[in-house]
């Protein structure tokens, strides 16, 4: 009986596990598509399915169709930004071997934000593409700075030192940003609104501007999966297996920097997505980055879409920015994850 029951499955356990992961990935795609439809359908103005269908076909003959047409780029940006932040969080946690790492805690988002604010206040930056390049530059400088500080002393770049260096840098950069904005009443209002983090002002032009950077970031990040699996074994063992540790870290880090910088340029700094999503996905699919990275991207998109929809519902007739909602969703969820016994295995 035992032999028959074991053989009846027709496949080894790891094959069954991969099938389940593939099925879960498809389910995530369906969930994300459903949330996209909800995002298009729900807003401050009620619209009919006929108006939604007409707007998706390019018609804007009524107020309802025009409202739906404005929600389409917002929905697209929420999905793209969420997937970028979720993927960047998984990459940073893999590079630093620190489950608490994310673009916010390591100060990368705040570095991108400060660079954009300095460009606006001191250099009169107005070109749209300049925002993206400046944000990526700020993210890169901050990442290098945090990693350098965290690498000093005995033991090199330990997870604890990186987290402390990132948290301290983030606080310092936030203070610098306030100091730069305070004397400039002409830009203070728009900068404060942008710093909350949101997708409400999305346009196809702004999305088209950051797409090339995000595509490169996605490709580099996904191609780093095997290297991250090797790095998870420890630097000495990874080097013994022939991995160039510094190059592997740098290449994966470049992918995360592109994703964080481009997303911050168009949305502002949005927190918690890159922290919570990789934890959840790791509990679902394990530590293999070949599965973890695509799961993190899809889950990040779903979380940000959900946060945007919730922000429109709970504050009608106005809206809550998505950055505020992700904090309310992410904080208790992260506490729940930390309290679970399985988090020790992360």
* Domain unit count: 1
Global outline: globular
CATH superfamily: ABC transporter involved in vitamin B12 uptake, BtuC
- Name of the level-1 CATH class: Mainly Alpha
Structural class: mainly alpha
Radius of gyration: 21 Å
Q: Biggest sheet, open or closed, and with what strands and sense?
A: none
Poorly predicted segments: 1-15, 341-346
Task: State the end-to-end distance.
Answer: 37 Å
Overall number of strands: 0
Percent strand equals: under 5%
Helix content: over 70%
How would you sum up this structure, described in words?
- Pfam families: FecCD (PF01032).
- This is Iron ABC transporter permease.
- By secondary structure, the protein is mainly α.
- The chain has a single domain (about 20-345), classed as ABC transporter involved in vitamin B12 uptake, BtuC (Orthogonal Bundle), CATH 1.10.3470.10.
- It contains 15 helices and no strands.
- The chain has helices spanning about 1-5, 15-40, 50-55, 65-95, 110-125, 130-150, 160-180, 185-195, 205-225, 225-230, 235-240, 245-265, 275-285, 290-315, 320-340.
- Helix 4 (about 65-95) packs across helix 13 (about 275-285).
- The protein is globular.
- About 45% of the residues are buried.
- Residues about 1-15 and about 340-345 have low confidence and may be disordered.
Please describe the structure with a list of short key phrases separated by commas or semicolons:
transmembrane transporter activity; disordered C terminus; cell membrane; ABC_BtuC-like; Iron ABC transporter permease; 346 residues; mainly alpha; ABC transporter involved in vitamin B12 uptake, BtuC; ABC_transptr_permease_BtuC
